[in-house]
């Protein structure tokens, strides 16, 4: 089938466009996906290599076993074969990268340029040939017109020549089009062929790989399988050794049990008949199978019990016989009848199988419910997944191993060890989720320690444990901290006590943690590293190459040419690397073995000891030696392993010693790049203020390689590095600097940016950085939060003051915050930190004990003497605190550290009276040691006093344990003995030192005499003393004082269940102790004890309430963030939609005012950039009409001036509406706008029908400097209207697209506003119906008349009104998903200009003016089709039935009272003029309509402030209604007002004295000489053009909707403009002020009756001085200029 040349040309162009717009972008996407494919395969092969390396190590262990040596060989061979397979796969993907990815990248870049040039050349040549042909045709027409005259023969020759020329050019044109189409199609095909050919090659390579892998595995697999089948085979040497051992005699008891068991398990013979089949089994399974036939033979216990064979899972060690039985669940009831060998059961019973083998459909088992045994049909049951474990011969219970003596453990419950199961049956039961009593788990720091084979655990590489018996798998990670004495502690997320790192031999200054390791600075100024142990070892492969050259004498030898590489070198040959030159980086490494040759080359084994051959150095090497192979090399490998796991290892110093020691350290950066694995960034600060960066830290090198200095703008005192690319530091002067340019290729960054301190008067001393947060502590210990921080904007946007005083902060995973309090030196956790609320809600102290805490009583709970001493100690001296409350689990007898008690008859030591009366109560005030790293900052940078001691803090710090004094020997009345430590007995201790950076602790322990109760008060009085450890500087019950905390490796979030904030107490032990002690307690002691407990509770309550006194303020001062993904219409050319990250950040100030910023993050040529705007700068958020995207625009004053808003597109309309609601509420909160609009509000409507209001300021109309129109804020109100009118008493009416009248109810919100953004009452359901129109276009031709076949230059045959967009009945959709069709397509006959009977309008050509009848010159025609759609929404609107309206107006002046009737006029959809009666402020809907007679239909009406009524008829003429007054609301007659010359008016608006009207051509006219005595005026004066609608306010303010604005873009049609300079003496104004736009369709200012302030400026130069310049010179024009400025 032949095509027309135009069709072929279009096919050519579409082919070129397809290649340029579809194929080439598709190739780019294919390249990116291919790279991702490569990365995934590389990660898979790397994981496979590591896995099979572990298999090989297990095989090496098996090689040592005398029985499993062959299996070890099998495992090692397996690992080697799989390693070769992975290497082969890597080589294939190297080829894939080289031959496909790189080639596609090159071809794509070249093809883009080539296709653009080819297409332009084709278009230019086609245009030239087309123009030449058209010129020839034009010349031919001229010749033919001339030849129609008298001398026709004169032009025949020329006409023939022109005909030949045209024919020749047409032939050339057709040939050119055909050749161009062929070439374009071939170009397209070439590209697809290229792509398919490349992937065919790759498929061939992959096929070869699979075949090779199959061959490699098939060669070895049979031998492997043979060695694994017989698991009972034992080597002869081992068998001989076992047989030589003497077999011990069996005890009579065991023999007796075995005989009984054998007799009891001997089943009766099976029934002779085949078992009956259940009905359902017959129906669904013709051949029923046993419930155990699907199970593996490994679980069948290798024989039946009836034959006397033992199950291999049975264990008889230690007198324990544990046998696992299979169980089944019955699905049908069964009765035995008279046969005693059969088993009766009900549906759902559980039966334990005693014989696992099925015999003729029968199974033998024991019913668990009745313990009856018998045969039963196998089809009546199904396998039961939970195994039954029976225990027999429990003569000796099995206990947990413990270091304690056996007599002390006899009260423990026996712990039974489940049998080991090494079967590979997939149907084997899983570990139950609830821990059984046999699986006992002890918790140490929250980490489950399982009994042997009792609990299954796995350890993830980042020190994360998962306990499979705990139900929910919660990862366990650590929080690290250093106290003021330099001791390092860790707190598990599942634990309840601080664990002391006992392997840390030195005191530490600071630590910084990651998930896999922890770094620290010790007192010797060296850096130490603690790598967490994991199942994946840290290994590094060292390699070197041995090179040889061939010569005729020695063949291949070590004699190389002088120009050759080294004999032992690296892979490049440039570095000399002999075997003995390799050294371990530090003592933390060890060699796994000796050097060995790599006998594989590119996945294949090599010949002759691993040599590979080549022609020369360097070249491509092969494993086969050729005749021209002159050089060869082989690779030697050796592995080293990092052995210093879970211990602090010193980082080796580099060759060049650092000039000064480090004072701060911070690690992070693990989220910058995934390669290399385990990559970290370690930053350090020296005492001289220099910053250093540690290079080369990754999984294979956890210590890194060397330190590199980073240039600085000043001296740094502290630094913090986040998990990403955010690094902040504190300068000596208190300023902050931010590292910029950090990325995957530049982990150190490129430059520093300076950020001022949060407080100008007080500098910063500490900074903590996370992923999207920065927290700062200033010199006055105030805490500040930096908002707007992310990788695109590392400097952030502003500071927010937070509640609390801290000495330091640290940011962990998920941006969680820890800090150390300024007053009590306790560790605090910031609660409520989420991804949307980064600042959190409140601080909460972490209240858990230390593992070495001595505040645990050692008295036995069962001892009456200890009970007496316990209460005597508390009543007599308040220094002794209840130890049972602190840790009752340790309230057991301990001879080493327990209380040394006297006999029950022993009396207490009596202290002298003056010792207790004269001693001041606050004598014991030990000074809190101050960390020098903190004092280094605080004393040199801060201007505050040193921190207060714990006793100076009042109730915030717990009291130190006071000790009782020893009386004189004469005062001892009984032979009582007591043991006192040196610190308690009054002998001064040596000064407590921490490390070189810790201040001296001056411990001043004063001896305090405590007078106990007399013997009459307590008959069991004695002395209670505690033995304090010499190495613990804290007193009993005294909380630790912390100096540093690091949560970089602590994986918690706001939903984590932590036990850090309330240390649990063993209530049962406490109750038992109290019960045992209550036998010897007197009422006086009980009363004193209760009084003391009440005082302690009161003090604690006060302390807790003090901690929450700023809670409400902390909630108010917060930051809330919401993020999402959108598309942004970028500002620069070429304009297109690009994917961006959108974030809204809200924050509140100390006064409670709310504000926010929204950010748009995008990448520009791989450079991270962002766009932002403050919420209080946004003037309007408006949905935008877009057929393919859900778009909305954001305006700011600057964007309004540029006529270029920020356009964003959401994925769905629901998401767009959610963002619009959230942004609108945020904008209203920042401006303090709440509730419904005011009575003076300005209302407007967009072309989509959305309703907006703006609250005018008094300065909006002020002269000479009014508020610019682009600074007005518009907020949306729910509902959907086409017209809205209002007045200054709050009466608002609207008209929908279906001409339904609506009245405003006084509410706010509705639509997509939910919750607090919408009022609960006065919101009603609102519906609106509008018609969607499309046009059917046709062209006439002489053959077939009017058809749908138009010219190539014609519009689409089905189009919109403009003809530029194709709109058919099938592809035309409602305006948005909220609209639904309610009718079918019908012909619209109500078109302007009229139609014929079929709805057609005719014209000479497209586009033109159409008429409803056909003439001889009409060659085109069109008709309009319409379809109705319906919208259902909500808003503060109530329907006014039943008359449909087309226009409405309300008297604009303010009423005197709420009962005054307000005149309201309207026009029905048929053109009738109506007057509404009974409209007041209380009843805005009115009561009834009054018809006002007219000679013709009207289309616009308005009423002025003095009741002057003007109207516009449908023919475009103007009318004035006379005698309108409150007594005569309808007036008496109409006065015709002549229209401007040759113009038809369409809209009119009247203010106080001004009358403005708009004609059908968009001209704005002003009526001159309107006075109260002559209200009709005299003449019309032209003001502007390009005006759609006008609104005149009660103060004669003039606002319009302009269709075109100078310098605007696509959104300019429908811009709100304000007339400037309107004054009583100059009512026409001076110029236009452009506001929001476009897309607006209606505006009304008839409710704004705020009188503007009058500003009188003194004259500086006299009367001749020029007028002041306008604020908007660019947008201002002449007094009678156009609104568009043109």
UniProtKB/TrEMBL annotation:
Q: Which UniProt keywords apply?
A: Actin-binding, Autophagy, Coiled coil, Cytoplasm, Cytoplasmic vesicle, Cytoskeleton, Lipid-binding, Lysosome, Membrane, Phosphoprotein, Repeat, SH3 domain
SMART domains given in the database record: DysFC (SM00694), DysFN (SM00693), SH3 (SM00326), TECPR (SM00706)
Q: Membrane spanning segments where?
A: none
Task: State the coiled-coil residue ranges.
Answer: none
Q: Where is the composition biased (Polar residues)?
A: 291-303
Q: What Pfam families does the annotation carry?
A: Hyd_WA, IMD, Pex24p, SH3_2, Tectonin
Where does the protein end up?
A: Cytoplasm, Cytoskeleton; Cytoplasmic vesicle, Autophagosome membrane; Lysosome membrane
Annotated region Disordered: where?
Answer: 286-322, 405-439, 1654-1686
Alphabetized GO MF terms: actin binding; lipid binding
Give any Gene Ontology cellular component.
cytoplasmic vesicle
Where this protein primarily resides, as one coarse class?
Answer: cytoplasm
Q: Name one GO biological process term.
A: plasma membrane organization
Point to the regions of Low complexity compositional bias. 309-318, 425-437
Q: Which residues form the SH3 domain?
A: 323-386
IMD domain: residues covered: 1-248
Secretion signal span: none
- Which function does this protein serve? May function as adapter protein. Involved in the formation of clusters of actin bundles. Plays a role in the reorganization of the actin cytoskeleton in response to bacterial infection.
Q: What family is this?
A: Belongs to the TECPR1 family.
> Could you identify this protein by its name?
BAR/IMD domain-containing adapter protein 2-like 1
**Per the UniProt entry, what species is this protein from, by scientific name?**
Scophthalmus maximus
